[in-house]
Amino acid sequence: MKYFIAENGQQVGPLELDELTAHGLTVNSLVWHEGLPQWERAANIPELHTLLGINPQPPTPPPFGETILPEPQPISPKTELGTYYTPQQPVIMPRPTNSAGTAGFILTLFAYFLCWMPGVNSTLGLAGLLLSFIGLFKEPRGLAIAGFVMSLIGLGGTLVFISSFFGNMLGGVNFLFPFLE
């Protein structure tokens, strides 16, 4: 196990157990090793008692038949004691995802690529619109907004296509844009 010691106002280490005495280890020296929540006096660390000449007291067992739980220790991300800091590992938080918004965007892209198949295009466009709409209520919203807007544009184009197709079938009547005749 590697140890750190506070020596002349500076953090020194990592050191092996036998190297601590060369750096002026006393019962009042501040020492830290992995597993300790904060810097401790050397007298409070049982592994250092033989180096300090302290006779360890044997632990007293709890009364038979009783269960004694240790008290919970508060966890702090960075403990400051003077100018010494406990070395910490960085905490990497995962980025939030929006599955519905992403799926809606992807379905809308497929609808655009399959624009030559009106039935498939409309079905994928509606599914993309629905999933993108659901994704608008979750974070992050970027792909959900893009999918929603693209779905509306694509479905609007499909309606124009269907209107012109059926309008021509019914004798040239344009239902959506009668003023274009």
Describe the fold and architecture.
The radius of gyration is 35 Å and the shape is rod-shaped. The chain has 2 domains: 63 residues, no CATH class; 82 residues. The chain contains 4 helices and 6 strands. By secondary structure, the protein is of the alpha+beta class. The N and C termini lie far apart (87 Å).
How many structural domains can be distinguished in the coordinates?
Answer: 2
Helicity, as a percent range:
25-40%
The H/E string reads: EEEEHEEHHH
Task: Give the tally of β-strands.
Answer: 6
What gyration radius follows from the Cα positions, in whole Å? 35 Å
The average pLDDT value, as a whole number, equals 77
Quaternary state reads single chain
Q: Low-confidence segments, ≥5 residues, pLDDT <50?
A: none
Distance between the termini: 87 Å
Morphology call:
rod-shaped
Number of helices: 4
Beta-strand content bin? 5-15%
Q: Sheet with the most strands?
A: 4 strands, antiparallel
- SS class: alpha+beta
Strand order within the widest sheet? 2-1-3-4
